[in-house]
Amino acid sequence: MPEALTLKGHDQSSVAAVSQTPDNAATITSTSRGSPSPTGKTKHSKQSLDYMLRSGLSGGAAGCAAKSLIAPLDRVKILFQASNPQFIKYTGSWNGVLAAVRDIRRNDGVVGLFRGHSATLLRIFPYAAIKFIAYEQIRAVLIRNPQQERSWERRFASGSLAGVTSVFCTYPLEIVRVRLAFETRKDHRLGLRELCRSIYRERHTSYPLLGGYSNFYRGFSPTVLGMFPYAGISFLSHDIAGDFLRSKEYALSSENPHNKKKPVLKAWAELASGGFAGMAGQTASYPLEVVRRRMQVGGAIGDVKFPGIVETGAKIWRENGLRGFFVGLSIGYAKVVPMVATSFFVYERCKLYLGIS
User: Fold this and answer.
1) Is residue 56 within 8 Å of residue 133, measured between CB atoms?
2) How much is the pLDDT for 39?
3) Residue 58 · residue 135 · CB < 8 Å
4) How many angstroms separate the CA atoms of 85 and 83, rounded?
């Protein structure tokens, strides 16, 4: 190919690579593993194992950072949502939240505010890793061109399916975490192993074919129903907010070396888009989250009937009316907004650092 001799730099090497192998086989192989971009950086294929590992590491780190930030509020919210008998008197106001925090500190010290957090981290790293990996992979399948990029339905579906995938894989760890956080009686606290045995031995009705293992998926149905709007709206809102802020030139002055079409947002802009996503997702899914919490802690409060979604929802309605489905929502906002903002911020920055942004 004489024309290749007139080219210089990376153009010459790429043409030479094509000319040395029949049917462009070398080019295809190189692209699947990761090839140099025009900036000299390695461009990773989203379907490659290397990209998925880097994406998973970024997602896991983001999840752990976000959950650690709001762990005390998370415990108080669980106690409120599940109507713990010792904390019902505190529900309904921010003063009650502060009083609940003081009560926990007085009885258990600062460590009490982080009860169940070790189980949270064990769950959140694989959960967040799987969620972001699934989102990147599903998004790559559903959105293949700029025209499809403008479809909010495809963006919503990508986030929803990613959320459901991650929940299915890590739900048993969520059950253990909630039960650890819910328990407040000093004379009735169980270690991690004893708690797992206790949950396994409880009467099981949700999925009889699974035996005792079905207890680790108690409340799974409302979780999935809630995850569709929560994850879908969160990812969709983050994308929309990010695109808007980039259009207003709130990106960093230096462009993204790995993706010129997606400039890196300034720190405050990235946090703002993540916070907006968290608020939108929380509002849409909160009633189902309350139902899920009540189902998850059924065995811990002596409920031997273990009602389903409809029965649990009806019970909440009888006890508190519509307000019962939004108990702890103010804590939810205070928790979710900084959590999701931190999660997206750390994820995007880790991706940039690892060269896959």
Assistant:
1) yes
2) 45
3) no
4) 6
Q: 281-320: per-residue pLDDT in tens?
A: 998 888 888 887 787 776 555 554 556 788 888 888 988 8
What 8-state DSSP symbol labels residue 93?
S
- Provide the pLDDT for residue 174: 82
Q: Tokens representing 111?
A: 């460590």
Of 133, 184, 191, which Cα lies nearest the Cα of 163? 133
Q: Which residue in 349, 343, 290 sits closest to 314, CA to CA?
A: 290
pLDDT tens for 173-217 read 888 877 877 766 665 667 778 888 888 888 765 666 667 777 888
Cβ-in-10-Å burial (0-12, 13-18, 19+) of 84 comes to buried
* Residues 341 and 279 sit within 8 Å (Cβ to Cβ): no
What are the b/e assignments for 243-254, b being 16+ CB within 10 Å? eebbeeebbeee
Of residues 10 and 117, the one with the higher pLDDT is: 117
Element (H, E) at 42: strand 42-43
Q: Is the per-residue pLDDT at 16 higher than 70?
A: no
Residue among 25, 127, 19, 12 at smallest CA distance from 67:
127
Local structure of residue 231 (DSSP, 8 states): H
Q: Name 239's Cβ contacts closer than 8 Å, sequence gap at least 6.
A: 155
Percentage of the chain beyond pLDDT 70 is 77
SS3 5: helix
CA 86 from chain center: how many Å?
A: 30
**Average predicted confidence (pLDDT) for the chain:** 79
The set of residues, in sequence order, having a beta carbon less than 8 Å from that of 90 and lying 6+ positions away, is 80, 96, 97, 99, 100, 103
Instruction: Give dist(CA 265, CA 263) in Å, integer.
Output: 6
